[in-house]
Design brief:
Helices cover about 40% and strands about 20% of the residues. The protein has helices spanning about 5-15, 50-65, 80-90, 130-145, 160-170, 180-190, 195-205, and strands spanning about 20, 30, 35, 40, 70-75, 95-100, 110, 120-130, 145-155, 175-180. Strands 7-6-5-8-9-10 form a six-stranded mixed beta sheet, with helices on both faces. Helix 4 links the parallel strand 8 and strand 9. Helix 6 runs antiparallel to helix 7.
């Protein structure tokens, strides 16, 4: 399956199970206080078997294409762990995951699973918004001696803050699908009105500007 087909297939899948859910007329409120027309919970893919199969096979295909030298997968805690595990199983590859902080007991690990110095790894993330957590994982792995080839994720908003953070960290991210594609398909399949697409893109381009709400 080519990149465009993957992007559209995964977008349709996420919309069909409301893993990505648009509500431009009744915005959600993020923890930061920002009003958002979109809610994303890719954990729902784990309980939708057909969608899960599409996602994990697409992740495996993307890793083989974009990161052919990968030797291990590392999931982000907690949302990326299951996807890293299933995808690693498909690829016959080792996996582990990175905690948000070191344990305060036992061996005090932050990286779970064996990581060899110089090992070529790919980070598996479910969602890229501002990219803070993904970049932190990359930095932890680099500090431990890994060669991080890049990130693979299910969905990205394409927010400027996230793109800037990834560029500053000099790390590549490849997402199965993105905000623009999902918004386009949501309109085509009548999840939202066509005139809402412009509002959604306005939100994505500047989440702190609430003028999209009044359009």
């Amino acid at each position: 399956m080519n990149t465009e087909n993957i992007s559209r297939t995964i977008a349709k899948d996420l919309l069909s199970i409301q893993a990505v859910f648009f509500r431009p007329d009744e915005p959600f409120i993020w923890a930061s206080g920002i009003k958002s027309p979109v809610y994303c919970d890719n954990r729902l893919t784990l309980t939708a078997t057909e969608v899960r199969n599409d996602v994990e096979n697409a992740l495996a295909e993307t890793i083989k294409k974009e990161y052919p030298d990968a030797e291990a997968l590392m999931g982000t805690s907690t949302a990326g762990i299951a996807h890293a595990a299933i995808t690693a199983h498909i690829l016959g590859m080792p996996m582990g995951y990175v905690r948000s902080g070191a344990k305060d007991h036992g061996r005090g690990n932050q990286i779970e699973g064996r990581l060899e110095a110089g090992q070529k790894v790919v980070v598996v993330e479910d969602l890229i918004s501002t990219a803070g957590s993904a970049v932190e994982v990359v930095n932890v792995l680099r500090a431990a001696g890994a060669e991080v080839l890049g990130i693979v994720s299910i969905f990205t908003y394409g927010m400027k803050k996230g793109l800037d953070r990834l560029a500053e960290a000099d790390v590549k991210n490849v997402s199965l699908t993105n905000f623009d594609v999902i918004a386009e398909i949501a309109a085509q399949e009548n999840y939202i009105k066509q005139e809402d697409v412009e509002r959604l893109i306005a939100f994505r381009n500047n989440p702190s500007d609430e003028s999209w709400i009044r359009k």
